Amino acid sequence: MKKSLWTFGTREVVFAAIGAALYGVLSYATNLLQIPGAGNVSLRPAVAIPMFFGVAFGPIVGFLSGAIGNILSDLLSGYGFWPWWDLGNGLMALVPGLIYLSIKDFRSWGDLLKAEGMVVLGVALGMGVASLSEIWVSGIDLATAISLNFVPAFITNVINGLILVPILMVAYSAIVARSGR
Amino acid sequence: MRMDQELPLYIQNLTFRYHRRNTPSITNINLEVKPGELLLIAGTSGCGKTTLLRCINGLAPRVYSGDLTGEIAIFGKSVQQLSMSELSQQVGTLLQDPERQIVSSHVFNEVAFGLENLAVPRQRIIYRVEETLEYLKISHLRDRETFSLSGGEKQKVALAGILVMQPKILLLDEPLASLDPVSAADALQMFRKLADDGITIIMVEHRVEDVLAIHPDRVMYMEDGQVIYSGDPQGMLDTIEINRVKLPAEVVVKRLTPGSFPSICPPAPPTDPRELVRFDHVNFRYKPESDLVLKDVNFSVRQGDIIAILGPNGAGKTTLVKHAIGLLKPTRGTVFLEGKPTQQLSVAQAAATLGYVFQSPSQMLFAPTVQEELEFGPKNLKHPPEQIQQNVDWALKSVNLLHERKSPPLALSFGQQKRVSIAAILAMRSRILMMDEPTTGQDYWNYLSFMDAIIQMPGFDAILFITHDLDLALIYSNRILLFKDGQIMADGRPEEVLSDTELLRSTHVLPTSLLRLNLELLPRTGRFMRAEALVNYL
Amino acid sequence: MLVSFSYRPRHSFIERFDPRARWIMSLALLFSIVLFWDIRILSFFFVLSILQVFLARLTWQETRRAWLFILVLSTMMILVNTIITGGGTIGGVISGGKPLLQFQLKIPVTGWIIHYVLTRERVWFALAQFLRIISIGSLFLVIPFTMDPRKYGVTFRGIGLPDKLAFTMDLAFRFIPTLARDFQITLDAQRARGYEVEKIEGNLFTRIRRMAPLFVPVTMNAILAGEDITNAMDLRCFGLKKRTWVESLKYQEIDYLMIGISILILVGSLLLRFVFHTGDFWFPM
Fold it and tell me: Does residue C192 come out as left (phi exceeding 0), alpha (psi in the -120 to 50 range) or beta?
């Protein structure tokens, strides 16, 4: 039973925590390729998880999965703590969550395409905010922030999201009927 | 409606239909439960037990929306009129899988959770948590991490988290499902004690034989959302259909007439069997500094073997079978798979000969259709496309799922998913089948038909299965490996291994009614068999 | 797969402080550091940050990975920033200046000519950048190693986040070991079906798609478990009212001292920057 876009009840708490833990664990486990130095950029297929959680459970769940998940991933890898990248990851998954209420069938072409569009927007916004924060924090110029932080982060995350979010949505369509709520 | 303030639970003409279903899940339930009574509700999966529990604890229709008609009252007050916080202090619910009930990383915080939510003052919480841990005799677990607990300990901690809220009624949803026999016996004793101390217990369970050991005061048997029987335990044993739930062997044989059941039994191994797998002085430890998990293990699997690997949880059974397929490599010694040491094989190469089905099918199902799910293995093994199609068809036919070819595996029922996971191995044309706890998650009726089908399936040279269910080993295997503390304690025909009562005691294997009856009749039968077949020898 | 957090009790000076006080301190210092480009002021913060690392008794062994990460990260950013593109932004490096090094580079094929000038100012600016990044990096590096994950929830509650949000953090920690185990099981189950992760085959797209056999079962199982967990929490009255936290935190005198000093530093920094207008980019003439 879907209520409103910004509900934050028990169910949202649980799925935000699960999304965050999944994002943390899976990015730690499947860090395919690291591009060191490129502003926390690495090829982490797990970035699709918080974006999918946004689509499936709403923007708040998406945001928390992305932000807390990125904190956990850094905690597990021992990378310290980078608040503006955590924020960026949260926003990246919040945006796809905005279409949560309008999804009727997780395996229909229309809804899948809608989600794909939001993935591109989400990654652009999230990574944009994080990269621009680097200008403020590290004092680099816009060109550096774009070439070194934004472009690699945007490309890798968008590719991962575009491929894996629909796969997860189709799989979820099979179990969504099993939830009685 | 009778407003009896003394009666913990009063249900009259209760009917519930989920909004997304067309027919009611339970119809016209009537029930009265007295203080301190232990009520057993038995039935196969889908009989409406879970829905009934949800109506009592208030989840239906609060979170599971639907139409509820009839009366349901706790100490004279209607469940719908009670608030969730009032209700939670009257009714406690222990869900089936304790792992899915525990919300904290540490035991103390887990037990405190409910009281924290009720905003009880901190000092009071600490006092009550400690009191509850003491009561359940688990004070030593206080500062442990919940993740590292054993299944039985997890359940006790989850129970403590409910008892700390001091409910008068306790609902237990299949509390034995995830426990090995020793922990299950222990848990049952604990439930008896709770009832004796005045808590009303309503337990849903299909392992009727086990529950009868603690003498439930009353039994209710449900089928298709309706009550078939309600009354004393003996009456149920005399009325309900056998084989739906697990009844004591003596009851089964008493109720049947000779010759009424066809006997399915494991085929005898061939006289000159080929050796398929050999463990040669295998030792294993996970880390150089940790203890040995396997200690000098020696045995061979031969053509025609149906081996049950029996032993308590944590004995190293799963570690053992993972060595056969090369997921783990011995620290010392060698495992040979068709003559080749597993050190020289990749897991993928080993998988071409030996198929390993994990405990829960949902741990491996991922594809959008059953067809694609079954193609996954053979494609990984680089089989040619025509051969893949042929084998997939054959596998689907063998597990009787041709009609589900286009369905998403994740949408199937648990039993069907289990069959898909077997078919995935069949489609790879692996000659040896290994299964980890093949029956968990299935009710008695389903798991018997599942195992019957596997045993009769063509295409396997040998079958191994891990289990802690003694009856399963006894009925379906032609060889038993008894395992404890990383060592093989016994290896032989079921009739040899299981007649050694001293050995069973030392390996914590609890004899069942079926074993006792089989041992009694062994001089006449010559081999072990299921209760239905024993009738012919009485 | 075994996951482990970097936290273990190390009985260090820094662990004696209340985690809330430490968060306030870290955030106050962060917001102070980003105000400045003056290398003399930045050195002060740099010393403070490094001091915290020592007071936390962190060893090189356990923090190596994080340090390498910060070093490579900052070096890359500074190199690209000073060499390839123009230079700093906010501090504003004066264009022109005294050239230290200049050369012309002709890129083959395209024929583009890069005229490169490295000035003294740019070198000093790069140094300021480096100090900033290292200070901020090491400021937060300490946290995962010295804060008990068990206290995250109550800490965030204590800083003022709502109950539900703070509990989300605790619940996420609870799921980590379980999901790590589930991932390992699924990995083994798929390997038993001939799936090989190590094998790098095909292009990037195929490689990402090959994550599906691992991601889908773990995620869907977790979602199904989530339904039960939600029920379990509803049945134990989660979210009905403002809850008690049995994990408690108590400010000691030293915590007030830390918070006081942190606020002083932040206020001082703000004054320096916006009232006295000091702290801009500076370099020795």
Answer: alpha
Q: Is the peptide bond before B61 cis (omega within 30 degrees of 0)?
A: yes
The architecture (CATH level 2) of A10-176 comes to: Orthogonal Bundle (1.10)
The domain total for chain C is 1
- Domain segments of chain B as ranges: 95-166, 275-512
Strands B462-467 and B432-436, bridge-based pairing: parallel
Average of per-residue pLDDT across C8-34:
91
- What was the ipTM of the complex prediction? 0.92
Distance (Å, whole) CA B229 – CA B222: 7
Residue among A40, A141, A160 minimizing CB distance to C208: A160
Per-residue model confidence (pLDDT) at position C84: 59
Give the sheet arrangement for strand B275-284, strand by strand: B294-302, B275-284, B332-337, B340-341
Task: Assign A37 a pLDDT band (cuts: 50, 70, 90).
Answer: very low
Q: Which residue of A has its CA nearest to C187?
A: A29
Q: Are strands B275-284 and A42-43 parallel, antiparallel or unpaired?
A: unpaired
Q: How far, CA to CA in Å, does B519 sit from each of B243, B481, C50, C268?
A: 21, 19, 74, 87
Q: Is residue C280 part of a domain?
A: no
Q: Chain C contacts of A179, Cβ < 8 Å?
A: 227
pLDDT at C46 over 90: yes
Whole-number Å distance between alpha carbons of B71 and B53: 14
Average pLDDT estimate for A136-164: 87
Distance from CA of B496 to the nearest CA of C (A): 33
**What pLDDT, on the 0 to 100 scale, is given for residue B375?**
96
pLDDT of residue A40: 46
With beta carbons less than 8 A apart as the criterion, state whether B432 and B355 touch. yes
Q: Do the domain assignments include residue C154?
A: yes
- Chain B residues with beta carbon closer than 8 angstroms to that of A75: none
**Interchain contact B64–A (C-beta under 8 A):** yes
**Strand B169-173 versus strand B91-94 pairing type:** parallel
Identify the domain containing residue C254 by its residue range.
Answer: 14-274
**With an 8 Å Cβ cutoff, is A170 touching chain B?**
yes
B117, B346, B352 member nearest C237 (Cβ) = B117
The Cα–Cα gap between B431 and B337 comes to: 12
Domain-embedded: residue C100? yes
Q: Taking CB atoms and an 8 Å limit, are A181 and B411 in contact across chains?
A: no
- Interface test with chain C among A12, A34, A140, by most C beta carbons within 10 Å: A140
B375 → chain C, closest CA residue: C193
The residue that leads in pLDDT, C94 or A173, is A173
Q: Is residue C236 part of a domain?
A: yes
Distance from CA of A72 to the nearest CA of B (A): 15
pLDDT digits (tens, 9 = 90+) for A117-129: 999 999 999 999 9
pLDDT of residue C255: 95
Tell whether the model's pLDDT for residue A53 goes beyond 60: yes
DSSP string for B37-92: -EEEEE--TTSSHHHHHHHHHTHHHHTS-EEEEEEEEETTEEGGGS-HHHHHTTEE
Q: Name the minimum distance, in Å, from the CA of C101 to any CA of chain B.
A: 55
A180/B18 CB distance under 8 A: yes
Question: What is the structure's pLDDT at B1?
Answer: 47
What is the distance between the alpha carbons of residues B366 and B385, in angstroms, rounded to a whole number? 21
- Which stretches of chain B score pLDDT less than 70? 1-4, 259-270
Q: A174–B408: do the CB atoms touch at under 8 Å?
A: yes
Give the pLDDT score at B247. Answer: 85
> Looking at the domain covering B275-512, what would its CATH class be?
alpha beta
Q: Which of A26, A36, A75 sits opposite C5 (nearest CB)?
A: A75
Interface test with C, best of B63, B102, B106, B347 (most C CBs within 10 A): B347
Nearest CA in chain A to B414: A178
Cβ–Cβ under 8 Å, residues B117 and B196: no
Asked if the Cβ–Cβ distance from B411 to A177 is below 8 Å, we say yes
